[in-house]
Amino acid sequence: MKKLFLVLFGLAVAGELLAMLTDFGPLHLICKPLIVLALGCYYRRAAPRPAALVLAALALSWLGDVLLLFQDGNALFFIGGLLAFLSAHGSYIGAYRGHQWAGPGLPAGRRALLALPIIGAGVALLTALYDHLGPLRLPVLGYAAVLVLMVLGALFRYGRTTPASFAWVTAGAGLFMVSDSVLALNKFLAPLPAAGFWIMLTYSTAQLCIVKGLLAHQPPGAMPA
């Protein structure tokens, strides 16, 4: 059954990407809400003990997707979507902590080296957007801060989970940041070519990578000797 949900996820992503390329609104309305819904069902089937925070992150992402479907008609839908995804990132941060082994983790110096490029990218993006955010300046700044923390949370799992889990989750978190950056640049700075296609491609891939990565985590006792 879990494979069926993964196939449904793939079909929903393909339909959404086609809708973005052809600007076919009805297909967009059908496929976009199905993406995370199918992925959430897959996670529930694939995880021996589904984590509440992972389910919350997916449910909040689904809510954000639905709210953003109607953002063109009312700015409140955009703000609602922003808050939903902010909460989803917070849930993922908590989920990362629940999917890592106990211990000190990386030394402070190595954490700083890993953090600098991510923080720098976030600061550069906000610098480019700052004068264009208008009344959404504070919400966007807050969202960006939580997004950066989500990516850092993925990076700081290094050495505290399986290599596969670290790689999948880190790739997903990075793609999430790319997706949100393209969305922000397209919305606030200037329209980008095929922006909707690239936003949804990176976003759906990000969600899949994070879920696959969290499923790949194993307790220390389950690791092969």
Automatic annotation (TrEMBL):
Transmembrane regions listed in the UniProt entry: 25-43, 50-70, 76-96, 108-130, 136-156, 168-189, 195-215
Family classification: Belongs to the TMEM86 family.
InterPro entries attached to this UniProt entry: TMEM86B-like
Protein source organism: Hymenobacter lucidus
Highest taxon of the lineage: Bacteria
Protein name: Lysoplasmalogenase
Membrane topology label: Multi-pass membrane protein
Pfam families recorded: YhhN
